[in-house]
């Protein structure tokens, strides 16, 4: 079957238009509301083509939606049942692989499995990066997570970087929108920017490029900064690096969810996202943004560096409590 490209937002709009004469207005509204969360997730994960949907990604969405909405089991089932209907419809117009709807599963919850951090907390991020620095120094995962945390880049931006985008002399990375050669960034050309790097991150990039980076090019003869033996690391590969590195058992050797580490399914290379404590690149980015805000980096600086408007930053990224914000304001006022 030959798939035809279709972005998630357009797909949902076509689905709702198709169902408009079949279901009651209240049902159509409910479907629109539920699938709106799916479109939001696709946007966060920079999944811009329904052709790329897989069973694993659908499972990742299920876990994300459970956490994001703090859903009761009955509500979660309703959400996933609606998504299954949508995916089955998408099969009929050659937008997704045939029978993909059979992989949309309503969850069977186990104790503790529905608990996930909305973001990677600063102390955990420090533990993860320290572990990578000690045991996987200048590995692809070390580079990817360091960039996501310190620069607050989206996974699409990290994926789009070339070796030539790194300027050691000015200690910076250029984030560039290049759709004509296979890489895009959120917000297109308006998302292009120069990102300043610390000396430590520069040293890490120097060592990766000199000693560890696979010397490959992509299909457009570009030299991807994050490369594999086959070329540019796929976004799914980088997402997997994030899930694998943020499993607590990797750092501590123990499981906070009382699972047997030796037999836990989430220790498999392709199943790290099934760990209740592993986090996505978006959660890592959110944690990095909150970390910078907690360390008194001005909102406008974080906004420009992370390429997100102050309003969106406040609504969706800033996870400081009201008390934390108050104490930060107090430190400024005490000096007046």
TrEMBL record:
Q: Does the keyword Heme apply?
A: no
Q: Which GO terms describe its molecular function?
A: DNA binding
All residue ranges annotated as the Core-binding (CB) domain in the record: 6-91
Keyword DNA-binding tagged:
yes
Q: What is this protein called?
A: Integrase
Output the PROSITE patterns linked to this UniProt entry: CB, TYR_RECOMBINASE
Enumerate the UniProt keywords alphabetically. DNA integration, DNA recombination, DNA-binding
Set out the biological process GO terms recorded for this chain's protein: DNA integration; DNA recombination
- Start and end residues of each Tyr recombinase domain: 115-330
Q: Which InterPro entries match?
A: CB (IPR044068), DNA_brk_join_enz (IPR011010), Integrase-like_cat_sf (IPR013762), Integrase_catalytic (IPR002104), Integrase_recombinase_N (IPR010998), Tyrosine_recombinase_XerCD (IPR050090)
């Amino acid at each position: 079957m030959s798939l035809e490209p279709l972005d998630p937002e357009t797909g949902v709009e076509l689905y709702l238009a198709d169902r408009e004469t079949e279901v009651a207005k209240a049902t159509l509204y409910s479907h629109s509301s539920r699938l709106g969360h799916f479109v939001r997730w696709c946007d966060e994960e920079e999944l811009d083509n329904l052709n790329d949907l897989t069973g694993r990604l659908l499972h990742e969405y299920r876990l994300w939606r459970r956490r994001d909405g703090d859903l009761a089991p009955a509500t979660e089932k309703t959400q996933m049942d609606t998504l299954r209907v949508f995916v089955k419809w998408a099969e009929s117009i050659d937008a997704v692989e045939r029978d993909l709807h059979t992989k949309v599963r309503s969850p069977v919850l186990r104790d503790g499995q529905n608990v996930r951090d909305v973001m990677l907390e600063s102390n955990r991020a420090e533990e993860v990066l320290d572990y990578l620095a000690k045991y996987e120094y200048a590995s692809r995962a070390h580079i990817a997570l360091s960039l996501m945390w310190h620069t607050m880049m989206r996974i699409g931006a990290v994926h789009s970087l070339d070796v030539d985008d790194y300027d050691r002399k000015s200690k910076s990375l250029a984030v560039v929108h290049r759709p004509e050669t296979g890489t895009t960034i959120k917000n297109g050309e308006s998302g292009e920017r120069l990102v300043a790097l610390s000396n430590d991150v520069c040293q890490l990039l120097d060592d990766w490029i000199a000693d560890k980076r696979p010397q490959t090019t992509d299909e457009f003869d570009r030299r991807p900064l994050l490369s594999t033996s086959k070329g540019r690391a796929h976004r799914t590969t980088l997402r997997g690096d994030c899930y694998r590195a943020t499993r607590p058992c990797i750092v501590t050797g123990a499981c906070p969810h009382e699972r047997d580490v030796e037999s836990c399914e989430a220790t498999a290379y392709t199943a790290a996202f099934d760990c209740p404590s592993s986090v996505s690149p978006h959660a890592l980015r959110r944690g990095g943004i909150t970390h910078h805000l907690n360390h008194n980096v001005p909102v406008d600086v974080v906004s420009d560096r992370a390429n997100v408007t102050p309003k969106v930053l406040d609504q969706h990224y800033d996870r400081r409590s009201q008390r934390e914000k108050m104490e930060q304001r107090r430190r400024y006022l005490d000096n007046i």
